[in-house]
Known about the structure:
Blueprint: E1 6-7, E2 10-11, E3 16-18, E4 33-36, E5 49-50, E6 54-58, E7 63-64, E8 69-70, E9 80-89, E10 93-95, E11 99-108, E12 119-121, E13 126-129, E14 132-134, E15 138-140, E16 145-148, E17 153-157, E18 163-167, E19 176-177, E20 181-182, E21 194-196, E22 206-207, E23 212-215, E24 220-221, E25 226-228, E26 231-234, E27 238-239, E28 244-246, E29 249-257, E30 262-264, E31 268-276, E32 281-282, E33 286-294, E34 298-300, E35 305-308, E36 312-313, E37 316-318, E38 323-326, E39 330-331, E40 341-343, E41 348-351, E42 355-356, E43 360-362, E44 367-377, E45 380-381, E46 386-387, E47 395-399, E48 404-407, E49 414-415, E50 418-422, E51 433-435, E52 445-446, E53 451-454, E54 459-460, E55 465-467, E56 470-478, E57 482-485, E58 488-496, E59 514-517, E60 520-528, E61 533-534, E62 539-547, E63 552-553, E64 558-561, E65 565-566, E66 571-572, E67 577-587, E68 590-591, E69 596-599, E70 609-613, E71 618-621, E72 632-639, E73 650-652, E74 662-663, E75 668-671, E76 676-677, E77 682-684, E78 687-690, E79 694-695, E80 700-702, ...
Parallel strand pairs: 1-19, 2-20, 4-6, 5-8, 6-9, 7-9, 8-10, 9-11, 10-12, 11-13, 11-14, 12-15, 13-16, 21-23, 22-25, 23-26, 24-27, 25-28, 26-29, 27-29, 28-30, 29-31, 30-32, 31-33, 32-34, 33-35, 33-36, 34-37, 35-38, 36-39, 37-40, 38-41, 39-42, 40-43, 41-44, 43-49, 44-50, 51-53, 52-55, 53-56, ...
Antiparallel strand pairs: 3-14, 17-18, 44-45, 44-47, 46-50, 47-48, 67-68, 67-70, 69-72, 70-71, 116-117, 116-119, 118-122, 119-120
Amino acid sequence: MQGVPRVGTLVVFCTVFLSAACWGDAQTLPSGLINVPSVEYSSIGDRQSIGTDTTLNVLDGGTVGHSFTAGTFDGKSADVLINVSGGDVGLALKLYAGTSMSISSGSVGVVEGALVGTLTAYSGSNIDISGGTIGDGFVANAGSNVRFAGGTVFSGTLADGSTFAFLGGAQYGDTLQAVTLTVATLPPVDLRPRIVDWKVTEGQSGLREGQELTLLAGGELRNNFTALDATLNINGGAVGRNLESVGSLVNVSGGLVGDFSYAYAGSKVNLTGGHVGGRFEAFESVVNVAGGSIGNNFIAHPGSVVNVTGGRVGSMVASADTVTHISGGRVGTGNNLNFSLLAESGSEVQITGGGLGPGFAARAGSTVELVGGEFQLNGAAFIGSQITLGAGDIFTGTLGDGSSFVFSPLTGDDLHGVTLTQAALPEIDLSPSVVDSRQTDLPSGLRTGQALTVVAGGVLPENFAVVNATLNVAGGVVGGGVKISNGTVNLTGGILGGRSSISSLAVNSFSSGVDIIDSVVNMSGGFLGERSSVRRGSVLSVTGGSIGTKFNAFEGSQVTLAGGSVGPDFQTMEGSYVELLGANFQLNGQDYLGSEITLDDQGGVLDVFSGILSDGSPFIFSPEANPLGDMLRAVKVTRTPLPAADLTPRVLAAPLQDEPNGLRPGQTMTIVEGGELPDNFTAIGATLNVTGGRVGSFAEVLDSTVRISGGEVDNWFQAHNSEVEIIGGKVGAQFSAFPGTRVTIDGASVGGLRVYKNASAEITGGAEIESSVQVLSGELTLIDGHIRGGLSGAGKLSILGGTIEQTLKINSGEADIFGGSFEGLFFVNNAIVTIKDGRFDGRLLTSSLSRIDIENGAFSRDIWNRKGTINIAGGVFADDIVNGDGGSNVQAGTISIAEGMFLGDFVNSSGTATITGGEFAGDVLNGSVYSREVSTLNIYGGSFDGEFTALKGSVVNIFGSAFYLDGMLLTGLTPYNAFVVHEREQTLSGTLADGSPFSFDLNSTGGPGLDLFSVDARLTLTLVPEPSIVSLAAFAGCLLLLSSERARGQRLTAYGNDT
């Protein structure tokens, strides 16, 4: 129940437990104190009272009897203060107006079996609560003010038996102001243990004191479930978001607990299995992790104790005044890009075992202890008792359970004043070992001289560290967060630092990959996990296999690519040495003859650098490639002979293995059911047909033809200067069509689409786009399809039909809309849009330099024209139309209306509006009470059924063939000359230029059902002979110029008298 301020009346009969936080501020005490206990007052008896200018401090050991009164019933007391920072206050305490009370510790009205209320706060009294315990029957009457300070937990039971807990302060804490607490009779407590294996959809959403509930597989508890002094056993099933426990025991051995769960005030959480979602927070509670997993951003707040002996924690913050013991398990498996374990100043952390991911931070002022041995700093033995790492330092060692560690600012670690405690280590086993099954009990890493081989079936958990040792990966999986220092790794198969998840539920799909420092890695096969990095003193030689996305080669590293495939976002930094061995190098389709290549950051020319590596694997690098773009800095290009390309068309019915992961110019491949291409598949100048099977993520094609009629192409498919036809199957999210690419999506399903400059896409045949479509200076034609996300366009859009569920945003482009259904917001900025038909169910907003021409269509929501131009020649408009903005940000729009049906109000707030036709059923308003810009409304035609309002400072110009005031014809008007009408409190009627009759009441004061023409509004009439051949719209444009010139300095009242 955090994150939402609450103000109102709360009906409660409860025992309120308040946990004082160490940061609660004590108030400053005035002179004339009564201290209990003290020499003068050892205690205060029953039925005593204090009045004006009196302060009572109840300290540790002090007691105040029952029926104590502060202030007087008539509310005339002032400066009456009670501060409870310890001791006990009895029942029936009364606080009258002029009284303030502060409770930070101790108890008020906690008497077992009591039948009377604890505390009554009357109107005009104030209570600040930052801790302590308050008994049953706390009543805060209307007009009293009860505030809960930061860190305070206010909990209780509502009248229906539901439990609640509010947290004061904190980052996402609750705010309660002027809350009334009223006594109510509660339902009896059922203390029989409950077992739930079904989805709970109604009834009480919590547990009361003494209750116990066990959740089994198939069971489901709703969001905001609260346990007060109860026991909750989660053996399976699922608990929604915002699970809160106050003084309770929570045992999690299976199932799933949603994000944002909280343990308050003496709770104990035991995790042996299952998964607790992200942003789990503990306040003055104990958390024991022996198994299972916790998501990212687990926070231990002051007063909490955390013990990690097993399991996984995504990332953790140890706040001041907390104690954390890590003797096993993994901390930092959620791939938080900022930290794995953050020990803040004032925290106490002891690490004797387990594995920590990259980003371990021990802040100055924290007390962090590493227990183990074999400590080395930059490769030399370290015998000091404390360590602080400088930039570039590498600190290695072995923890007490035999797990190795590597800490360095290079990998995001930040150690200040960490204590090193020598301890006996397990005896080192130097015999080579083989892992062929899932390992959970082995030490997290390899020590000096050890060698280990992972084969098929073998699984090593995350945060594995290799220090002066050898790791061979021939199969199986080594989880993310691998660190290698002065080691050797041979990757011939399997996954090293692969995509990891912190539970079997795959709650996180990213991996921190592998960090390589002062080491040698030989890669001829397998997969090197995403976000892997090669750092100073390291050598990576790649002759095969696949490198995951977001690879980095840092200063002082050496990388040789002679084979294999490379994922997107390949980055080489200044000072690194990277060499490409192969042939057929091209830059933007032209042969590249240089010996080095540099590709700039995103934002420049859409460069594409391609070629074939020595083993026959094609590659494509581009700064604009998704998600972040490749970056090459002075990469050496070395030409080598290539194996001959087999141009025989190939049918793939099984997973592709042990051969180049791509197609070379002239090659053709058809994937059928059972066929599978791995991630990072690359095709250059080839043909790829997908009729079944699967293509992995990050497939990339250049100068190729791709036909997809079945199967599945995973996320981040990218095409450069290619033909892509999708008539079946499924393509994942973030499909990108780069320059030169033409895409046809006919009746198929695509997760999302981006169309870049000089690329085009056509969506037809009822195709489904599951998320958004972005047109980035390219062209899109939507004939018949369903875009479930939004459509944004900075290029050329042609929409003939189909449905767009969310926002349609056209920015700096053009759009022609001939039909279709638009369900979300329609936003136009600096663009030209023509609407010939369609159904628009969202708001239409324009911004500067925009132009919209509407010929037809149905608009169910309002239109707001800000600094744009809108021309309406037809359509039905069910809601309001607003032109300009008369507020502090002056946004003058221009709008012209020739035809259409307008059921809502028309408001010309600022700018110019011209009406030559149309049916206006709603009200018309010209001007704004805040206007700093003249609002001009020109009326040549149309019918007006609602109220007409012209506000102060606005201008209304009416053009017609005859005008009447209170039924009398205005004579003496000269055609095409604008005459000012000053008269008010009369009826102006006549015939507009289009032949339509009109009638407005010139009331100087308005009201319900009345027209209003302010005496400070400018009203002009221009006599126009009935046009014969020239169209009214064209005539209106010419006439505006003429009449505006002739109206200068010429003012005529009714009957044509010049004044």
